[in-house]
Amino acid sequence: MVKLILAVLFITYALAEECRDYNSMCSIYARFGFCKSDRKMITNCRKSCGLCEDTVPTSGQTSHGQCGLSMKQDSRIISGSKAVKDAWPWQVSLYYNGQFMCGGSILNSRWILTAAHCVDGFDHRRYTVILGDFDRQFQDGDEQIYDAVRAFHHPDWMRPSQLNHDIALIELDRPAKFNAHVQPICLPKKGEQVPVGKKCYITGWGQYTIGQGGPPAQVLKQSPLNVVSKSKCTNINTRKMGIKVTDEMLCAGYGPNCPNSGCHGDSGGPFVCQDNGKWILQGSVSWGPGFCDTSEGYTVFARMSQFVDWINSYIN
User: Fold this and answer.
1) d(CA 129, CA 147)
2) Which of 8, 110, 124, 254 is buried deepest, with most CB atoms within 10 A?
3) Are residues 169 and 205 in the same domain?
4) Residues 45-93: pLDDT tens digits?
5) CATH value at residue 163
């Protein structure tokens, strides 16, 4: 009997020992996608490749640890062109009743961030959330498809002024699996200010032609946008559209002489800035000119650094 117990303990211990990394470089190799391309990774780097049952993070992923990492950091195409696959692995596509609706960002394995106007008045049971998407009309097997357990916006949405606190959270029905195609984005520090003039990136499948009713993009698109001051944004956006630019908002763009901007369908999607090698979610697409015409105003985002406490109260 003693021998049997010892044998069981030994087997349990051995199995526990199996599910770990045997190489100090495993986490780095995993970030660059070797889990799929190198068979040795399955044996030597089980933990970093997500093959252990306890390796899927469920909280805290956005404030520290492995977040904001892209496998294709040097492969970006600028000027509002098509993105490179896996360059923005935190990007989410949100569907409602099977129709493309909004973008979003992966915060951790269970939580997605999007815009309040993407969930206000909608039934969460009708959402489909797709992670790892790139070409919306072609499935390459890297997509992960989820239902929503719940979706809710910030309690101060539309207060004290129009479109203020335009932020919402969606809880997935099961944990996402992180790999080269699906990764969480980092949150900024509470109250963090993005320097005026800093070049950051907007991504999404939103309308790509000027006008009110154009179709969404098939392939994920991206564009660099420079952060502009609140006063500069107010001078054109508030003057032409009558919407107050608040401290809970962040504006970016190049002005009337450049067509690059967010548009219909980009709502809720990420606006990210790079800091010390990691990408930080500084904004979520909120509003802008109705015809996506940059002569009418800048793209406006919900400023993430204003919502860190509220976000963490749920995802952590």
Assistant:
1) 6
2) 110
3) no
4) 777 776 654 333 333 344 334 899 987 754 433 335 678 888 999 999 9
5) 2.40.10.10
